[in-house]
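Before the break, one more example. Copy the sequence into your notebook; we will annotate it together after we see the structure.
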Amino acid sequence: MKRAAWFVVFSCTALCFVTNSLHADTIFSENFDSLPLGFTQTAGQFHTLGVANVLVTNDVIFVTPPESGNAVDMGFAVALQSVPITLGPGSYFLSFDLVGAQGGGGITSTDVSLGPTGGPILYYQNFLLTAQDDSSGIVSNAVINVSGSQETVFLTFFVNVGVTPQYGPLLDNVSITTATATAPEPSSLLLLGTGALGIFGIRRKLLPHWK
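Here is what the structure looks like once it is written out:
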């Protein structure tokens, strides 16, 4: 019985710590689902650089799993850049779905970068995607580290015109979330303490001779 009570206390402690350490805050999120369909220079929290347009589409021929709802076809844009994103010191996760051209297009080359104007670059990757490639450009929880002071950064998807076909790569499900574990909240510590006291109270009441 004594071991069982201590196991309950330990389990409560672990649960409180794990629940809080796995908590992640969303810093930036865009899935384009709330946008009207058609050509545009502003796609939610992104805008094109220059006069080019992107196509917001939900055509089932173009938007295939893992995409869903609306996605952005970047075949007619040189670059798609986010609004300013503020990141404090710490670690973050960057995720996005970048899929090869669907409508009979050829190879697409896209540079993806995250960083403040003038650098330093916090993330960079080139994605050379064949038509209908729905795996090579899927990025989940790429680690972004910000050291020192707070940074105002931009997330940019630059389509290299030299190999861009009529239909471009599709972009969907972009997000930046916190990755740094957070300390247990006071409410969780209070709950843990109350639970522990309750366990020991029950022990003393029901098992007065138990040590």
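The helical segments are 2-21, 186-206. The CA atoms of residues 97 and 138 lie 5 Å apart. Try to locate both features in your own notes.
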